[in-house]
Amino acid sequence: MRIPSLTRTSGKRRDASGPAVSAGAGGTGYGDRFIDAVAKHRYQQQTNGFLSARSAPGHTGAPVDFLFAARSDPKLPDEVFGMLQWGGLFVYVDTDQTRATRIAQDYDGKRGFILETQPTRLWLSRLGLRLPGLAPRAFYFAARKVGLIQPGQFTERFTYQVELMPTKGTEFGYAVCKQVPTHADVSYRLRQRFPDLPDDEIETRTHKLVDSVFPMFLTREAAILKILQTQMPKPYDQLVPKVLGVQKDEQGFVRRLAMNWLRTGGPRLTQLEFARQSAQLLTVLHEQAQVMHLDLRLDNFVLTPRGVGFVDFGSSARIGEDLAQSPMLTSLFGEMMRTSKIQRMLGRMLDKGQVTNQSFTCVHRKADKAIDTFYLAVQINKPTHNPQFSHLVEYDPHSDQAQAVSSLTAAVLRPKDQANPQFRSAKDILRGIDRIHRRLNTD
Ligand SMILES: Nc1ncnc2c1ncn2[C@@H]1O[C@H](COP(=O)(O)OP(=O)(O)O)[C@@H](O)[C@H]1O
Ligand SMILES: [Mg+2]
User: Looking at ligand 1, which atom is closest to the CA of residue 299?
Assistant: First the structure.
């Protein structure tokens, strides 16, 4: 997802005194005071530990979890969408009830938002008192960004329809709902990608994807997540999604999967800590859960207050699973392993001689856990390539850490002894990271 430029304040993290949102250029006297009042009285608790900002044009920064706006600030769904993290809350304050209500309607189940708090009256506190009738009055509403992209936007990246859904009894009041896309969505995307295909071919492919391929992979994902919940030891079980419910079609295939939301947040990690946690989680996934992810791109990583997590087990398989058992699985995994981004990158790097480790050269185009290990080595070397959490990983290419990790990546991909590489598994990489950690601490 491309992140448009952000606001002037990027806010504070873990600010016990409340969100850092007030004032700045463009603020209107009352606007500032109302924003402060609503931030303090309504959202102080929730904003703790998350990024807050005041909406304003012309500034770039990390997308925030809470965005506050008054009348003179950017306030329309399309203007604020890119300033917010997925699941972020937009709070608007205005002295004019009619205007607040009109703007709130633009967020009510539209443009990737849902209206979480209807326009509500607020009395501005004077000397700590909020006296109805005596104090100035304003109206605020709050809208949650539940869509990953806005309706009408096109991206190749998201195959499924993934959005947040209000759900009682969950940690943040929301669950992630991943569902098979509609026929209309899929045929639109196919048309964009293959403009020369005849209509009947688009139709056939759409049916195949919507009626069998997507449901089959979603069914596999739900099954793998259930395996993870029994096989991942604590606390690692919290770093992968838990199934909250599934909806199946008449043939028993999952069309809708609800899981818990591994919400972005928490303290910033050093590059080495990010690498360590990622390698540790992958080691546990491979060695204890006996599952390979097979699509371990940074957009399938999440950075949460509990640490680095992995999502999207849609292309995963059990280690040792006989994929040849079913002709359909054989053909789909075969295709995925020819066309996936990771496999294509491996192919290019092999051609250029950038990967010589035989543990990886021999899995080109194959579904094998070494594919995860290969990509882990690549990712820890550029951990800020996911805009959703780039602000949460410290990365300075000139730092000792970055240079040490870069040497590690090189040693993993191109070992001195190609036939007998020192690094073959996630656990080997973890050991390498621990050695860097000890060396840098000693230095
Ligand atoms: N349980 C989850 N918790 C937090 N974020 C999630 C979760 N599931 C999905 N996401 C977010 O949604 C995006 C798309 O979901 P994903 O399962 O990767 O779908 P797709 O298979 O279409 O790539 C992910 O890249 C991630 O940012
Ligand atoms: Mg994904």
Answer: 25
